[in-house]
Structures are given as C-alpha cells and as structure tokens.
Amino acid sequence: MIPILAPFFTGPLRPFAERLALGAQSAQPPVSAAALDRSWADACLARFAQALGCDDRRALAAAWFRDYTLAVLPGALVAAAVHRRSLPFDDPALEWKGAADGRLASLVLPDDGAPETGTLPRLLSPLLGQHLPRVVAAFAAAASVSPRLLWCTGGVAASGVARQLAAHPALAAAQRAEVLAWHGHAMSADGFANPFHGAFRPGAAPGLPGVAPVRRVCCLNHRLPGEGYCGTCPLVADGRARTPLSAAEIAPARATAATASAR
After folding, report:
1. pTM, entire model
2. Are 252 and 231 in contact (CB under 8 A)?
3. SS3 assignment, position 132
4. 32-41, pLDDT tens digit by residue?
5. Does the structure show a pLDDT above 70 at 202?
C-alpha cells in the first residue's frame, strides 16, 4: 500500500487500497504502461475465463473492470481529496502486475505525486483522463464490448466508493462536498470529465428516498458462474429478464462498492 494512504484504509477498508504500491521500475517489468493494449487485455481475459470457468467475454470484461475500479479509484480519491496529490497513473514508469486469475495483483507507481493546488477533478485526471480510458479501450477491443458497458459497470462501483468516502469521519466538510460534487457531475467547472458519471438512470440513482436505484446498462453479472441478477439490474426493473426469476437470482447488489469485496 502507498504509505500516505495507510492511515485512511485500516481494518475492513484495507482491501480498497492494498493493490496500489510504490517502487522503482524493475529491469524487466511484468507489464509496462506502454503495453496496456489489446493483447494485454486478451491475456487477462483468458486467465480470468479459466479461473471462473466461463467463456462469456463480455461478462468477464465487465466484472474485470468493476474489480479494477475498486482497486485503483479509492486510493486515487483519498490521495486527491485528503492529501491534494495527483497519483501518477500517466507515468511511463508505471508497472502493472497481474494475479493468477488475470486481475490486478498490484499497480506499482513510481512515486506518490507532489502536493498541488488543483481541483479534485484536475488531480484525478491522470487516472480518469488517461489511464482508465486506455484500459477501457483495450478491454472493449478484446471482448468486443461497448466501452459504455465498462464505464457504467465501473461507474456503479465508483458511486459506492464516492459515497463511502464522503461519509468517512476523516474528511472535513469542504472535502466531503468536493467529493460529492465530483461524483454528481459529468464535467467539472474547469473542464475535466468524469467518465463514471451517469451510471444510473436519471431519477433512479442511489440515495433517493423511496426510489430503488437502477443502472443504465446491465452488467451481465448473471452470466457468470454462480451469480444472479444484481439489485440494480435494469432487466429486472423493466421486467425483461427471464421469468420467473428465483429469489436467489434477484440477489442484493453485489456489484456495488458498498458491498463488493475488492478481491
């Protein structure tokens, strides 16, 4: 874990930051930043498919990117909101180390950035404007899937991350407001996009009294072995899923960051 994040991510929160690390670039890095392309995504999906016993690449890509969002976004948000640092996700020295199942084992950054005076969206731009769009493009090509599916699936996880962070007692009121403003807008006042925005249907976002949250795009979680329809599934909400659905299929929303495990 990156040292400046350790005081924030203690106890049950530790898994949400332990896959970000610092270290010098090795002589032969497992995967360099320059190699995060379609062939890399193909290899990740092949290992993930073997681990899960599933050949549905679209569902695998969505699940992989949800997990990746939960691995990299919480630390980036805390570094930006609490420490005013922009983690260098855009640095060529970044190293990606994979686990046996094809998911992220650790993302090794060359440093933890330097204190800056920029806005939260500006501080997040190396991740949201450069690194993650590259990852999405690679997996969209490898799985023949729409980038919108990946951004929406990651966006549901990002929504849970932002809401949990905003509720953390370590945040001051201004920091809490800043996180919620970032989460609530597609574009910041200073021109930085939030590609995770809009994961839920208008009027059906989490936190609205008496309204069940509904995501814009089905995450295809029910196509994975042993999984069912998540609690925010638009197919269930619209009555277009297979009928009848069992109680086990209409399961609580395991895909949200509020309940999902980082691993």
Report:
1. 0.87
2. yes
3. helix
4. 777 899 999 9
5. yes
